[in-house]
Amino acid sequence: MAASYMAFASWEFDLLGIARVYTSSKLPGVYETIVKDSSQFAIMELPWHYDREGALPIFAQYYMFLQPLHGHPMVGGFPARYLEGALNFTENTDFIFHLTHPWSLGPLEKDPKYKELEQKLRHNGAEILRHYGIKYVIYHPRIPGYPTLFEDSRLAAWLERSLGPPVLRDTDGNHLYLAGN
Q1: Using only C-alpha atoms, what is the Rg of the chain?
Q2: CB 114 within 8 Å of CB 81
Q3: Omega cis (within 30) before 57
Q4: Is the distance from CB of 141 to CB of 105 less than 8 angstroms?
Q5: What is the 8-class DSSP label of residue 15?
Q6: What does DSSP assign to residue 18?
Q7: Helix-helix angle 153-163:115-131, to 10 degrees
């Protein structure tokens, strides 16, 4: 009996590491600018989005892991429960909506009926972010521990067209965009 318990326990504990993802607690280079900035502002980390079914991918937890290290409020994240106001913000603020629903960028860019809206958002994107106190946008083409995560070239291009080129690209490939002061 003891031998079968030992065999079962060793097999069971061997499975504990299957879904575990490890990441460094060292802040990626783009955060140096944010940590050194003593003004009051929020940041937005991307990709952070709803999929078409309304689910949030798990890598938003990585952004929450880094938040205590930089200490600034952030759009989205991965709290235990989202407040209705936070969800309304991402759903009802045009520029923020398209950043958090990147699958909407295709129709926005290609469908002629959205041309005027697309131009307005591209032109006013930084102003919209500043209005809500968002100073920096960080784009993570790759998330540590998730090597197969997509690099959303459409989202990266949209950021560059609306906010200008990144002010910094770190060695991990992250892009830091400045929305304004």
Answers
A1: 19
A2: no
A3: no
A4: no
A5: G
A6: T
A7: 70
**Residue 71, phi then psi, degrees to nearest 5:** 75, 15
Planar angle of CA 29, 126, 121, nearest 5 degrees: 130
Residues of the chain with pLDDT under 50: 148
Write down the pTM of the prediction.
0.78
Q: What is d(CA 30, CA 7) in angstroms, rounded to the nearest whole number?
A: 48
CA distance 6 to 85: 51
The SS3 assignment for 178 reads strand
Asked whether 28 and 168 are in contact (CB, 8 A), the reply is: no
Q: Are 77 and 67 in contact (CB under 8 A)?
A: yes
Given this model, what pLDDT does residue 123 score? 92
**Structure tokens belonging to residue 4:** 């079968």
Q: Are 131 and 141 in contact (CB under 8 A)?
A: no
Which residue spans within 122-166 are E strands per DSSP? Answer: 134-139
Query: DSSP letter at 8?
Result: H
Q: Are 145 and 62 in contact (CB under 8 A)?
A: yes
Please tell me the predicted confidence (pLDDT) of residue 68. 79
Q: Which residues pair with 175 in a beta bridge?
A: 139, 169
| Residues 50/99, Cβ–Cβ less than 8 Å | no
Contact 96, 90 (CB under 8 A): yes
Rounded Cα distance between 103 and 79, Å, is 23
